[in-house]
Automatic annotation (TrEMBL), chain A:
GO cellular component: endoplasmic reticulum; Golgi apparatus; plasma membrane
Protein name: ALA-interacting subunit
Keyword match Cytoplasm: no
Protein localization: Membrane
PANTHER family hit by this protein: ALA-INTERACTING SUBUNIT 2-RELATED (PTHR10926:SF29), CELL CYCLE CONTROL PROTEIN 50 (PTHR10926)
Transmembrane segments: 266-288
Pfam families: CDC50 (PF03381)
TrEMBL record, chain B:
Cofactor: Mg(2+)
One GO cellular component, as annotated: plasma membrane
Chain sites annotated for binding Mg(2+): D436, T438, D907, D911
Domain of life assignment: Eukaryota
Subcellular location per the Swiss-Prot or TrEMBL entry: Membrane
Molecular-function GO terms, alphabetical: ATP binding; ATP hydrolysis activity; ATPase-coupled intramembrane lipid transporter activity; magnesium ion binding
Active-site feature positions: D436
Keyword Nucleotide-binding in annotation: yes
Chain's gene name: LOC111274193
Name the UniProt record assigns to this protein: Phospholipid-transporting ATPase
Residues reported to bind ATP: D436, K437, T438, E588, F642, K665, R699, T780, G781, D782, R881, K887, N910, D911
Listed PROSITE patterns: ATPASE_E1_E2
């Protein structure tokens, strides 16, 4: 390689050369709408076998009956990983005062050593032993489970990092293990593995974040593979959780996410509506202004200049 | 119409001053006789008070028989106070307390006061509920603000009461000489005085309690008392002791003095007293003449001895004072209604929630296994939040009012003081001002202003009104000229000719000159006259120039009358050659000072001789302007005293040549009736001047003289002496007849006009207040003539006004039959009303002058309404001779009858009732006596500051407070309703979307600072614009800012905002994920986001309301928003069990979510849109006056000339509707001039 070659080479790399040759490195935004694809599947009725549909509550409460159930979901559009798996409960008042208060943040952090757990009433003690985690919220832990199979292969579901990091680090103790949990006569929701510390029980952590509205979604996990259009995903689920007692609905939701979060048309509609009404108002006011325009600082509007004014 | 003021020449005793004067005047025989009192002192009191009858005190009264009956059972053992330590004669000490609370009662009573306020009571209710286990909010978050708010208010009360206590302490610790034993008098604290104590009160001291006068420094037991603090009357009153106690005039006499008084029980009646004195085994009837009342002052008497009859709270003065009621402003009262409204909304919400909750519980919730419901039924309660930042704002407002440099009186080093801060906004809604006269409008100081001698008026010919009218017409003319385009020359020239005609009518070139010099009263009052009591400028008379006048004789006589016909006494002054004078009425002092200025110095007075230092024009001219000054002695032969029926006073003197003169001064009508045929030379000219002076509000007195032949005098004198020595009821009549005999065939000299000097700036202030649409009533204890004079002087009256007089005829008064009097008054009212109805179209203003007696009748039940109807329709009302109680009564009646806000202003203790009764009481703090100030809500150093206090501060405060209150309503509706909506979603369980501390912080920190800034600093227009357009003040009385429609509008605005905020949030954020990593919003993040929207919305809303941005507003509004984020971060950083829902919510959850910021933006825009549209529509199609004025002020700057023209024109236009005040007078004058001018042009 000669010097001139080298120089030429160097020259070719200078910005100016790249500019003149219109070869500046560039990124090319392809303006495609960032579609958020969402699949919502209600399964609470479907997953109760025909014979039990008359009395779903006793079906769900009867431990001896297997709760297996399969659903098949068809993916209509391409879904890019990560695909978030939610379970959605409707008509479930997680925001009820009695429910919301029924927890003990200190116990969650410090374990059963922390005794003042009166806020956990009525799920505070069992057999004179403190319950860890205490309170109604933990007691009613959601315990349906889902597995996803696509073309006979199980889709990998990541169930880590579904809870807020601060919750894991600061709210739930790393040395606190479930104790005396769901040992009473009344069994609410799911059980916890007593060998895993609370900070790793992410299902519990997610559940403990009470929702604001009676219809809510909670994160179950993430599918970290893309789903193509027309893929069929078979969901094997354990229909354990009792929503039949109060007529709640259970839904399974698969959704991708954009920078604005999940699929929500309201924001867009609101923006369009507000924008257009603002434009209309602007036009109306402009016309009004043109038609009957009030001179600026017109003294004839002063009360003593108006005829109706009487001193 | 001619109104002549007549001063009251009260008999005067000047023993002490005579004594001092005598010593220095080297009049040996006088000095000798006065040095020792016992040797026979000059009995001035006898000398001047020949007309005072002693008989009246001996009249047996029917009331005397009541003694010993119930109500008249008091027994006082004089000089034996120890006997009053035990029952049944145990009476209270002379200790006085005006405090509202004491140490023990403070807490319960102050708490009661606080919780009488609806808002506070509501708060208390909420706090109590929070103690119950059902409450959704933590206890601290409800109780802390309550304690804060109530605590601040109570602290304020405590401080105010502490001041009262200090004041009391000061009064209670004054000392007085009290008899200890064996004729020894020692200093004793007022509070330690007991009934029965004998005290000695010295000159110019207040009486410590109600005393029975035993004797005085005068031999005849007379003393003079100033009762200004009791009834507002400025003239002195005579009190005289019983003959029998006269001997008790030395300290030693009291060693063995013992007597018993049986008298009436304590009562508030100032003018009655019934009792008996048992002294030396004889019983003597007592009358009010022997009673010295607490709060009055000993005047012109060296000392008196008295025995304490009523002490402390038994005294009539204290009984007369009413406890100051706690006043509440109109806005505040309306706010109660708003709170009721909000409260009922809240109750409704709670009810809905409770019913919903219980229904749900019955039907559904049993199935909600996850709640594990027990059997007991819980009823949740939803709390709204409503805080009172108002108190703080008002205190700050009051502070700013106090600090206003424009209202600082440099002379007195005092500024305005808002003593109760909760009436600030009421200042902006005043419609009626009830004003005291003396000390409030006037300084109680007379000034010699003008005189007319021998038919020539001196001291300036033109009145201020003329000057202002000519100036105004000049300005008008220019304005016209400007407005007429160049093309329109014909009409312009017409205007010019018209104007010159007007100018011609105004006449004399002097007018123009003076106008150019700018000498008008308005400006002249600024420069203090050099000599107190003399404000006369006319080179024709001043500096001895009068000697060159043609009518020299008249002038000299005039000055002599001025210098001789009086009862005053000269006092040595520091200044060489100039003397100070003391006389009963201030007019006499003014005359004496004036005559001194004209070189007729009255320098000595003895029993029978008056010495004048005269300037002798007939003498040889030594040098230019250096004439001989001679002392002339005049023998005082007789003194014919002034009385209210005679309305004149004369002296008969003989000069050194033995010539006898009768010098007379009196009311013009009286004097004119008694003129000799050859004495009427100047009558016509003088009458003209008189009416001019009266129009200017001067008090006028006519002067006349007569030369009496020696023979005639001798003859008369015997008759007069005979009359004088007559004892019996006919004496007075005889004296009257005798004086009638000599006071005739007078020769008129001229008239003198004295001005009851108005306080600085009073006419301008009244003018501005009138332009602001306020009605001003003058309530005074003075005579009708005086009151009318002042009415003219402050332009409350003017010549072309139709005056109605309500007064009782003498017959009715003497008969004292209520029914007849009532009918008479009713008849008068009806007549006046008829006239008013007939003349209403003519736009002539009406004035009502009513007399105290008639007033009493007019305020009785059945006549009341007719009277008030008439009074309210009059442009100005003047009430004279009214008692303090009547002042209070009329204030209450006007307040109740018209339903308008009233303001009472006064300076003396006699105004206290009125001040307390009115919606706003204002006390003048410049004068002595603090009672009025103590009772008032605002104290001003001078009346003129009322203008700024009302028109600027009142207007501002009204605007601020109403804006603030409305914003409060809005804010709490907007915030509280989101809580309610959330209830709907939580099955009415009472769960709250926000963290407890967010809610507490909402009113305490996050939205309060901008409100405070708004409440304290908001201005719709600047203060000078307020003053230039007083009509803007009408916004307050018309209550444009606090109408129910506005209140409802703001509530609706709040409802809309809350709906937008809540619905947008839940629909946007739920149920799908709100962040890229799939997280969904839970209750804590949704709460924080919604709350952010609320903070933004309410703070931006206040930015839309605010029209006056200073850096403080910017800082507080944008700072509050920033503060919310800071709070969220800090609070979230606390451990989870402390921070609750806020744990890491901002940093980790919502902060990084773009949706959060977008929602905030969207929601703020949408929720403010309705208000924004509203103000756009209002501004562009239906602007308020302040909007226009703002625009005029700020946007016409480019075209300065046009600006000025419109500006001034509009200023004038805004004034046009006034009927009283200086400008109105000027307007009226212009109208008259114009009509005259146009007539003349037609004639030409």
């Amino acid at each position: 390689m000669t010097n001139t070659d080298r120089e030429r080479h160097r020259e070719r790399e200078t910005a100016f050369y790249l500019f003149t040759q219109q070869r500046l490195p560039a990124c090319k935004p392809v303006l495609t709408p960032a579609w958020v694809v969402e699949i919502v599947e209600r399964y609470d009725t479907e997953c109760v076998p025909e014979p039990f549909r008359i009395d779903k509550v006793s079906y769900v409460q009867d431990d001896s009956i297997p709760k297996n159930c399969s659903l098949s979901l068809k993916v209509r559009k391409y879904m890019k990983a990560p695909i978030y798996i939610y379970y959605q409960l409707d008509n479930y008042y997680q925001n009820h005062r009695r429910y919301v208060k029924s927890r003990s943040d200190r116990q969650l952090l410090h374990g059963w050593k922390y005794h003042a757990t009166s806020s956990c009433q009525p799920v505070e003690f069992n057999n004179n032993q403190p319950i860890v985690p205490c309170g109604l919220i933990a007691w009613s832990l959601f315990n349906d489970t889902f597995t996803f199979i696509r073309e006979r292969a199980e889709l990998k579901v990541n169930r880590k990092n579904i809870a807020w990091k601060s919750d894991r680090d600061h709210k739930f103790g790393k040395t606190v293990y479930p104790f005396n949990f769901q040992n009473g006569t009344l069994i609410g929701g799911g059980k916890l593995n007593p060998r895993i510390p609370l900070s790793d029980q992410e299902d519990l952590i997610v559940w403990m974040r009470t929702s604001a509205l009676p219809s809510f979604r909670k994160l179950y996990g993430r599918i970290e593979e893309d789903l193509d259009a027309d893929d069929v995903v078979v969901v094997h689920l354990m229909n354990n959780y009792n929503t039949y007692g109060f007529g709640g609905k259970k839904k399974l939701v698969l959704s991708t996410s954009s920078w604005l979060g999940g699929k929500n048309d309201f924001l867009g509609l609101a923006c369009v509506f507000v924008g257009s009404s603002s434009v209309i108002l602007a036009i109306v006011f402009m016309l009004l202004h043109l038609k009957s325009r009030r001179p600026y600082g017109d003294p004839s509007y002063l009360p003593w200049n108006r005829k109706s004014f009487s001193g | 119409m001619t109104i002549v003021g007549i001063c009251s020449f009260f008999v005067e005793g000047q023993g002490s001053t005579a004594e001092e004067g005598a010593g220095t005047c080297e009049v040996v025989e006088i000095a000798a006789s006065t040095r020792r009192r016992k040797m026979g002192m000059v009995r001035w009191s006898k000398l001047y008070s020949f007309a005072c009858l002693r008989t009246s005190t001996y009249e047996p009264s029917a009331a005397q028989e009541l003694i010993g009956q119930p109500g008249f059972s008091r027994v006082v053992f004089c000089n034996e106070p120890h006997r009053h330590k035990r029952k049944p004669y145990k009476y209270p000490y002379n200790y006085i307390s005006t405090t509202k609370y004491n140490v023990l009662t403070f807490l319960p009573r102050a708490l009661f006061e606080q919780f009488r306020r609806v808002a506070n009571f509501y708060f208390l209710l909420a706090a109590v509920l929070s103690l119950a286990s059902l409450a959704p909010l933590s206890r601290a978050s409800l109780i802390v603000p309550l304690v804060f708010v109530v605590g601040i208010s109570m602290l304020k009360e405590a401080v105010e009461d502490w001041h009262r206590f200090l004041q009391d302490l000061n009064v209670n610790n004054r000392t007085v000489k009290a008899h200890a034993s064996n004729g020894e008098f020692v200093d004793k604290l007022w509070k330690e005085l007991r009934v029965g104590d004998v005290v000695k009160v010295n000159k110019d001291e207040y009486f410590p309690s109600d005393l029975l006068l035993l004797s005085s420094s005068y031999e005849d037991g007379v003393c003079y008392v100033e009762t200004m603090n009791l009834d507002g009357e400025t003239n002195l009153k005579i009190k005289r002791s019983l003959e029998d106690t006269l001997s008790l005039n030395e300290d030693e006499e009291f060693g063995r003095f013992k007597a018993t008084v049986r008298c009436e029980d304590p009562n508030p009646n100032l003018y009655t007293f019934v009792g008996n004195l048992e002294f030396e085994n004889e019983s003597h009837p007592l009358s009010p003449a022997q009673l010295l009342l607490r709060d009055s002052k000993l005047r012109n008497t060296d000392y008196v001895y008295g025995v304490v009859i009523f002490s402390g709270h038994d005294t009539k003065a204290v009984r007369n004072s009413t406890r100051s009621p706690s006043k509440r402003s109109r806005v505040e009262r309306k706010m109660d209604h708003i709170i009721y409204l909000l409260f009922s909304m809240l109750l409704l919400v709670s009810l809905v929630s409770s019913i919903g909750s219980s229904l749900l519980m019955k039907h559904d919730m049993d199935d909600w296994w996850y709640l594990q419901l027990p059997d007991d039924n819980k009823v949740p309660d939803l709390e709204g939040s409503d805080s009172k930042k108002e108190d703080l704002v008002k205190v700050l407002q009051a502070m700013l009012i106090n600090k206003d440099i424009e209202m600082y009186d440099e002379a007195a080093c005092k500024s305005v003081q808002a003593r109760t801060s909760n009436l600030n906004e009421e200042l902006g809604q005043v419609e009626m001002i009830l004003s005291d006269k003396t000390g409030t409008l006037t300084c109680n100081q007379m000034e010699f202003r003008k005189c007319s001698i021998a038919g020539i008026s001196y001291g300036g010919d033109t009145t201020e009104v003329d000057l202002a009218a000519s100036k105004r017409m000049n300005a008008d003319f220019e304005a016209c000229q400007f407005s007429i385009g160049e093309s329109d020359r014909i009409s312009q020239s017409f205007e010019v000719s018209n104007f010159s005609a007007e100018k011609a009518v105004l006449g004399c070139p002097e007018v123009q000159d003076n106008a150019n010099k700018g000498i008008s009263r308005l400006s002249r009052t600024e420069e203090e006259s050099v000599i107190k009591g003399f404000n006369f400028r006319d080179d024709r008379l001043m500096n001895k120039n009068w000697i060159h006048r043609s009518s020299l004789l008249e002038i000299t006589m005039f000055f002599r009358v001025m210098a001789l016909c009086h009862t005053g006494i000269p006092i040595e002054d520091d200044k060489i050659d100039k003397l100070r004078y003391e006389a009963e009425s201030p007019e006499e002092v003014a005359f004496l000072i004036a005559s001194q200025e004209f070189e007729f110095q009255f320098c000595r007075r003895t029993q029978s001789v008056m010495v004048l230092k005269e300037f002798d024009p007939s003498g040889k001219e030594v040098e230019r302007y250096h004439f001989k000054v001679i002392f002339r002695e005049y023998k005082l032969l007789n003194l014919l005293e002034f009385s209210s029926s005679r309305k004149r006073m004369s002296v008969i003197v003989s000069n050194e040549d033995g010539q006898i003169f009768l010098l007379c001064k009196g009311a013009d009508s009286i004097i004119f009736d008694r003129l000799a045929d050859n004495g009427r030379t100047y009558e016509q000219a003088t009458t003209l001047h008189l009416s001019n002076y009266a129009e200017d509000g001067f008090r006028t007195l006519a002067f006349a003289y007569r030369i009496v032949e020696a023979a005639e005098y001798e003859c008369w004198n015997t008759a007069f002496t005979k009359a004088k020595t007559t004892v019996g009821p006919e004496r007075e009549e005889l004296l009257e007849k005798a004086s009638e005999m000599i006071e005739k065939d007078l020769i008129l000299l001229g008239v003198a006009a004295v001005e009851d000097k108005l306080q600085k700036g009073v006419p301008e202030c009244i003018d501005k207040l009138a332009q602001a649409g306020l009605k001003i009533w003058l309530l005074t204890g003075d005579k009708r003539e005086t009151a009318i004079n002042i009415g003219f002087a402050c332009s409350l009256l003017r010549q072309d006004m139709k005056q109605f007089h309500l007064s009782l005829s003498r017959e009715a008064e003497s008969n004292n039959q209520v029914k007849a009097m009532k009918e008479e008054i009713l008849h008068q009212i009806e007549n006046s009303y008829k006239v008013m109805c007939e003349e209403r179209n003519k736009e002539a203003p009406f004035a009502l002058v009513i007399d105290g007696k008639a007033f009493e009748i007019a305020l009785r039940g059945d006549v009341k309404d007719e009277f008030l109807q008439l009074a309210v329709n009059c442009a100005s009302v003047i009430c004279c001779r009214v008692s303090p109680k009547q002042k209070a009564l009329i204030t209450r009646l006007v307040k109740e009858y018209t339903g308008k806000t009233t303001l009472a202003i006064g300076d003396g203790a006699n105004d206290v009732g009125m001040i307390q009764e009115a919606d706003i009481g204002v006390g003048i703090s410049g004068m002595e006596g603090m009672q009025a100030v103590m009772a008032s809500d605002f104290s001003l150093p001078q009346f003129r500051f009322l203008e700024r206090l009302l028109i600027v501060h009142g207007h501002w405060c009204y605007q601020r407070i109403s804006k603030m209150v409305l914003y409060f309503v809005y804010k709490n509706v907007a915030f509280g309703l989101t809580l309610f909506y959330f209830e709907l979603y939580t099955s009415f369980s009472g769960e709250v979307l926000y963290d407890d501390w967010y809610m507490t912080m909402f009113n305490v920190l996050l939205t309060s600072l901008p409100v405070i800034a708004l409440g304290v600093l908001e201005q719709d227009v600047s203060s000078d614009v307020c003053l230039q357009f007083p009509a803007l003040y009408q916004q307050g009385p018309r209550n444009v800012h606090f109408k129910w429609s506005r209140i409802i509008g703001w509530i609706l605005n709040g409802v809309v905002s809350s709906l937008v905020i809540f619905l947008a949030n839940i629909y946007i954020l739920s149920p799908s994920a709100y962040r890229q990593n799939g997280y969904v919003a839970d209750i804590s993040s949704l709460g924080a986001i919604t709350y952010t929207c609320i903070i933004w919305t309410v703070n931006c809303q206040i930015a839309l309301i605010t029209s006056h941005f200073t850096w403080i507003q910017h800082l507080s509004i944008w700072g509050s928003i920033l503060l919310w984020y800071i709070f969220l971060v800090l609070y979230g950083a606390l451990p989870p069990y402390l921070s609750g829902k806020a744990f890491h919510v901002f940093i980790e959850e919502i902060g990084p979510a773009p949706l959060y910021w977008m929602v905030t933006l969207l929601v703020v825009i949408v929720s403010l849109l309705p208000y924004f549209i509203h103000i756009v529509i209002q501004r562009s199609f239906n602007p308020m006056d302040d909007h226009i004025i703002q625009e005029m002020k700020y946007c016409f700057r480019k075209d300065d000339v046009t600006d000025n023209q419109t500006w001034i024109r509009e200023q004038r236009n805004s004034q046009r509707s006034t009927r009283i005040g200086f400008s109105a007078r000027v307007d009226a004058k212009i109208v008259i001039q114009r009509t005259v001018a146009s007539k003349e042009t037609i004639n030409l």
